[in-house]
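Tutorial, part two.
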Amino acid sequence: MLEENVRLVLDRIRPDDVVLDVGGWARPFNRADYVLDAMPYETRGWYGSAAPAQGGRTERFTKDTWIQRDVCTHEPFPFSDKSIDFVICSHTLEDVRDPIWVCHEMVRVAKAGYVEVPSRLAESSRGIEPGLVGWSHHRWLIDIAGEHVAFRMKYHTIHSHWRFSLPPRFVRGLPEPLHVQWLLWEGRFSFGEEIIHGVENIAAELERFVETARPYPHWQTTVDAWQRGLAAFARRAAGGVARRLRHAEGR
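Running the prediction step on this input gives:
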């Protein structure tokens, strides 16, 4: 969780509130009464001293309230409707195969909560891991607008050309708060998957987002567009020649 938001979250939790942390294994939120995660209690705190637990000095949850299970299994979380006062889900939704189900269950069991995910800017940047865009284990490009969380598959095309991603210098220059996006919600929030069909449309969406940040000089994008146009012309010309040859052979 963004460090400056820890106090923001704690200020919304009353002393007797029941708190659930969904996916808290790597960096548990100590104020949570329950933790729901696929990994075992004994191995919690994977980040160690590099990113110690947040939400207080001592763990409020125990081994008995650590619920080890796959959060994407289509089996309801083991809590009744609105029985949780506050749910936290920080840097989990981008990892899991079915974040829609996880959001559905959080809204069902909780009265309010906090969601945090990588920003689209950070997830679209090269240089976080060698040779890749964003983080290698993340499955989703996520946008939070108002109280809606939109998920797009992190299409493999994003790794294929510089115009679909942001240069390493871009993410290095981002202030820490812009590395993430977050939502504090009450009652419910909306969510859904946005599906893109077609190679051209996927490329257009990735390129559209990159262009909003304007990370490349005008000459670079102009030359690239000219090269792509030339390549398309060459493909069309070659196709026309091949069709004429087939027609001639058929006479």
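Residues 218-251 form one domain. In part three we will examine how such features are distributed along the chain.
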